[in-house]
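Input record (Table S2, row 325):
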Amino acid sequence: MKILKTLMAATALTAVTATAAVAEKWDMPMAYSATNFHSAVGAEFAKCVTAGTSGGLEIVTHPSGSLFKGGEIKRAVQTGQAPIGERLLSGHQNENALFGFDSIPFLATSFEDSEKLWKAAKPSLEKLLDSQNLVLLYAVPWPPQGLYFKKEVNSVADMKGLKFRSYNSATARLAELAGMLPVQIEAAEISQAFATGVAEAMISSGSTGYDRKIWESLTHFYEVDGWLPRNYVIVNKGSWEGTSDLNRAVMRGCASLAEYTGNWRSKEYTGFTLSGLRAGGMTVGPAGESLVNELKEFGKTMTDEWLENAGDEGKAIVDAFKAMQ
Ligand code: PCA
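Output record (pyroglutamic acid complex):
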């Protein structure tokens, strides 16, 4: 009974504080199309926070890079131009190799391993983000990465000279190793890049090809399961510290829910989007064994290079991940 009374008093207090506090509105830039599952999860997260704070903190999502383009989102949140945002952090691995832990070819190639790798890397990532004025809320993996072309490809030799759309330095490096010409383009702009011939091939998930109706320009998708890069929702530290305890607690709760449903949706979306590519007329199937073997050699080179760039902290992540196997 005493507990109940205390609880009721606490709830009454929260209600008073919530109504007394000035309602805040946070714009949340997101890089990918509104129909993409990451954007759907972000929209649910925003609703969860708005409802959970009884409108005390309203989060408004802006998908498709409409508020800030993908490449600008991290800086916008760091500098407080946006209080919160979503970004593929491996897009910033040229700034710090640790951001690229999730784009090492053939290190973690399944959802299960991606989860383990995330567990191993999360403390380092949180620390790095903290040093950059950022608070990490949640991270959700893209489906496994595979290769897109507009012709049949059975070996690295077939890839030589192609203009290859990259989304981070790992994908650009892969292109170089395969003798292709990398060109960095945000997902929101790839339909046009492929339609105009600025790019002719890429590595990405079935999800991004499906979202961008890639069958209008390309013909083949080869499942490689190279890695599962993550999108992250980050908050400006000043905005985080400046909002109420209640708002922070609700955001943490909604973030764990979003991470859970995001993982689940990513898995579901994998098969769904591959069927979608097929329905669009593309040839979809696993990459041939000899092509995979050639790619694995590049993977070894890139793992060594990453370990060299990411130093002891990088090595500790890989070791912790391997210890979970
Ligand atoms: N889609 C994003 C990143 C990884 C993915 O599957 C993109 O292609 O930009």
